[in-house]
TrEMBL record, chains A, B:
This is D-erythrulose kinase. Pathway: Carbohydrate metabolism. PANTHER family: TRIOKINASE/FMN CYCLASE, TRIOKINASE_FMN CYCLASE. GO terms for biological process: carbohydrate utilization; cellular response to carbohydrate stimulus; glycerol catabolic process. It comes from Halotalea alkalilenta. GO terms for molecular function: ATP binding; carbohydrate binding; carbohydrate kinase activity; glycerone kinase activity. Pfam families: Dak1, Dak2.
């Protein structure tokens, strides 16, 4: 269990401070995480990694020469926000574009994906590469659904080595993809971890049992069994991993493979070596040549008891890149020539808080956007309990308080920006960021996506007319579908947003004023939200829970309907629309 | 707890195999432990470290360029035997002498000390340097009694860097001593570890309590208290360490210090960083400049929950040596030029099992020595239970089975050597090694010392006459007093051995034959052993236990008396003495 902390809510930020204090020769803190404190070549592709905190040395401990250029560091076991990823990427960018790599978890996929869009929109080339090495988390046919565990390291390491060797963006990305395709892991767990201040473990394994394939956040495994001997465990892991050779590898015999035997926290080094002894024998028996293995703690989960075995099937290029020297706080390898440290003032940290000048129309409109957000806040606050109750029927019941955190943060930020003469687009975009940052969870991130898209469409130049607003709503819907991966009928907020968007667009195209069009659209959203009670969720929890929710509307759809109705009243009273 | 093992008794040797399989580029297994697998300069002083297994990366993980030249690896939490230390030292020696460094624990002091004597006797320069950094384990006036914990690393590292920089033996030793004098640590514990196959933890800390100063094997701390916040813990550790500045340091202000914040196993990196954050602030406030700190797992104790803070007060030379590059399996630093790997056949491993030619008289005498050992075995086997019962009154009751293991191993080895035509001296010396290796514990080690001294005095050239035997017994007594640190009257085997020696010497000097002199000496030993019942032990356990033993003779003294009586009968029947 985690025993040493101050206020649990400060843990994640305090650990970054301590980490940076310890390794200031190698890393530097920037908003959202850390970047290298050493000079990289101009034009070098930047490999930016990240994820929730609690997995040290992943992710911050892997930042440094020969490995990642930066790491976005989320809260404990929680994805960093899109804004954090964006901020770290901007600081890490050397003018050669950014490859974002991370374990394939829903929150990370969402936030890194949003950051990518933002970087692209600013002309910075960026691609995402979620690592999918955990073979127990989905069958090979659904490889894209697999989680990323200790195999993160082989992907990060080879991609970064390629970047440092001067590979261009496409070639670096190709290395990262091939490394991911040729990396396979399988893990086991004996006990879960207890987070700072928590009274219960985050997850548990039955006493004297081993959970085969359990994930590093306690995701269910594929089998519970008695704890085997060290040799039996080695045999099980090696045999299973040798059953799934990467494409192009016909037989293990004659292959060169890097092996990672990774401890998750409290399965200690001595046990790992006893297991590794048998792993090495078995791979030798299978005709596999092991190249520069690592036995130790590479991706942990606090003091979770467990381990994973990773096989990284090398080819000539990947072996050269794996072999390349590296010097990070937690991973050092080979004969390195240390890079020059950056001067204290040298790193260009983007000022994410700058307010660019806006037209006077847009500044006036910003006041109306603020009023709309305040109306949204009032209606959310009046319904927090109700939203929680609806959500609790088939979910975890936190939808109400999540919405409260998000909308409150958005209003606070909007007030600040209105006072600073921001335009309507900037005000709404920043309010969206604040919402996503503070609300957490998927629904918070999606509200951030939606309001951000709307804000971008509105811009800081013109007053937002009906056409622009309608166009913004269309983009908001596209963003939510893209990042939220929900289809109509899946019982999500999309089921209310689609009729809202369609009605608004039809009315506006038919020549209606914004206030009237919006009111009709809001009514459509309301009806659709009520009707969502008949639907069965497709995404998310187990079958019995999904069925339990039939008869209750989707809380996300209800939130949306309530908010658009409240905003409609603001528009009717004093619309900022010019035409 | 330790979950992954095969047969618990194989754990220590299997972990070495796995470790060497993983890091064969850096280390090579030799009898007794590991040495570097890279070439060192001819004439370079060798730094050989070691201790019980279970503390990875101490000790094997610290072997490699820029750090230790070899590590003797004992069983779990048990000192390596003198023979192991000797063997590793012989393999690590580059012709420049050997510095043996290790944590200051009784078993290690004994065995490394014995290995030193043996190396010296073979003309290899050797000194021991026990590390004494744990300030909670004894007051400053008794610094030599303090235990060694994570501060081991600063001593090993700077000594080895000095050796690699070409310092001669005395200068390297001076660096090691100064590093030890300028290294101070303080640790805390929250829970103990459970060894492979054990059903109970080796030691425990009360729930929700913290033991300040508890040792890495569960040695009692100085205070139990509630678990503090991370900041409070940092404040307590820093304040206590700053109270005891090393000699020559008047004030912390302006000093340059290396900091190690060491996790013992399941206090994880994130917690360490949160604590380190405050440590760095406090040292900054005190005007201390922190140089190249390390936050991580440096000296562990399986999955024990705890940490220690070490301050290493640098001077210019120590800072340069700390800064020097290193590349071991678990500790890498700086810009290193990797040394050439050794060829497979290149390392000269001393054949500890070679039998040098002996005179025919000595070979005949070897048969009598074997008979004497067999007689000792018979009398021990007949008294195992009795010896255990006596020992159980104030001890742990294992004296009988320890003696059984030792004497059985000695007879086995003696039979093998007799069949290989060994001389009496070689036969007895090797039997002594086998006794110490197999018996374990202090009493086993001391029987190894005693028989080894006797065997060396007898030699392989002449038949052992009365004078030589008497001289050998004197050396055996000296060895036991030197390594066992017992004085007459402390209620140990010394209380029987002194009258045995004095009587034997007097009789032999008076012209008596060996058989007659030995019989009188054995009678004196028997009387003294019986009289040891009146004594109160000075060494060892707590007062109440010591008093409990009054009225019962010392089991070690009884063993000695039984054995010398049985050997006396063999000598009387057919003595190998020529004059």
């Amino acid at each position: 269990m985690t025993r040493l902390f101050n206020r649990p809510s400060d843990f994640a930020s305090e650990l970054i401070e301590g980490f940076v204090a310890a390794y200031s020769d190698k890393v530097r803190q920037v908003p959202g995480g850390v970047v290298r404190n050493t000079r990289s070549k101009q034009g070098e592709v930047a490999v930016v990694i990240g994820g929730g905190s609690g997995h040290y040395p992943a992710f911050s401990g892997l930042v440094g020469q020969g490995l990642a250029h930066g790491a976005a560091m989320g809260n404990l076991f929680a994805s960093p926000s899109a804004r954090q990823v964006y901020s770290v990427s901007r600081a890490a960018d050397n003018g050669g574009g950014v490859i974002l790599s991370f374990g394939n978890y829903a929150g990370d996929v969402l936030h890194f994906g949003m950051a990518k869009e933002r970087l692209n929109s600013e002309g910075i080339r960026c691609e995402v590469l979620p690592v999918t090495d955990d073979i127990s988390s989905a069958p090979i046919e659904e490889r894209h659904k697999r989680r990323g565990i200790a195999g993160d390291l082989t992907v990060f390491k080879t991609a970064a080595a390629a970047a440092e060797a001067g590979y261009d963006f496409d070639a670096t990305l190709a290395v990262a993809r091939r490394a991911n395709e040729r990396t396979r892991s399988l893990g086991v767990a004996f006990s879960g971890c207890t987070l700072p201040g928590a009274s219960q473990p985050l997850f548990e394994v039955a006493a004297n049992k081993m959970a085969l394939g359990m994930g590093i956040h306690g995701e269910p495994g594929i089998e519970d069994c008695d704890i085997p001997t060290a040799d039996e465990l080695a045999e099980r892991l090696v045999a299973t991993l040798l059953e799934e050779l990467p494409e192009g590898v016909e037989s293990p015999r004659g292959q060169r493979v890097t092996v990672l035997l990774n401890g998750l926290g409290s399965v200690k080094y001595e046990e790992l070596f006893v297991v590794y002894r048998r792993v090495a024998q078995l791979l030798g028996d299978a005709g596999v040549e092991v190249i520069e293995p690592e036995v130790g703690e590479l991706v942990t989960s606090f003091d979770m008891a467990g381990l994973s075995l990773t096989l990284f099937w090398l080819d000539e290029e990947l072996e050269r890149l794996w072999h390349a020297p590296a010097a990070t706080p937690a991973f050092r390898k080979g004969e390195i020539t240390l890079a020059e440290p950056l001067e204290a003032t040298e790193l260009e940290i983007p000022d994410l808080d700058v307010v660019t000048p806006a037209s006077s129309e847009s500044r006036r409109a910003a006041g109306c956007v603020l009023s709309a957000l305040e109306a949204a806040e009032r209606v959310v606050l009046a319904n927090v309990e109700k939203l929680g109750r609806i959500d609790a029927i088939a979910g975890d019941g936190d939808h109400g308080i999540g919405m409260e955190r998000g909308v409150t943060a958005a209003v606070e930020k909007a007030r600040e920006l209105e006072a600073r003469d921001a335009g309507a687009g900037t005000l709404l975009t920043r309010a969206a960021d604040a919402w996503a940052d503070r609300a957490g969870g998927t629904s918070g991130a999606l509200w951030g996506v939606a309001l951000g898209a709307l804000g971008t469409a509105i811009g800081d130049e013109h007053a937002p007319d009906a056409k622009r607003v309608s166009e913004g709503v269309r983009r908001a819907l596209e963003g939510i579908i893209h990042f939220g991966k929900a289809s109509p009928g899946d019982k999500t907020m999309v089921d209310a947003l689609i009729p809202f968007h369609e009605t608004l667009e039809r009315e506006v195209e038919g020549g209606a004023e914004l206030a009237q069009a919006w009111r009709k659209a809001a009514e459509a959203a309301h009806r659709a939200a009520e009707e969502s009670a008949h639907l069965v969720p497709k995404i998310g929890r187990a079958r019995p829970l999904a069925e339990k929710s039939v008869g209750t509307p989707d809380p996300g759809a209800i939130s949306l309907a309530l908010i658009v109705a409240a905003v409609g009243e603001v528009i009717s009273k004093g619309t900022p629309v010019t035409a």
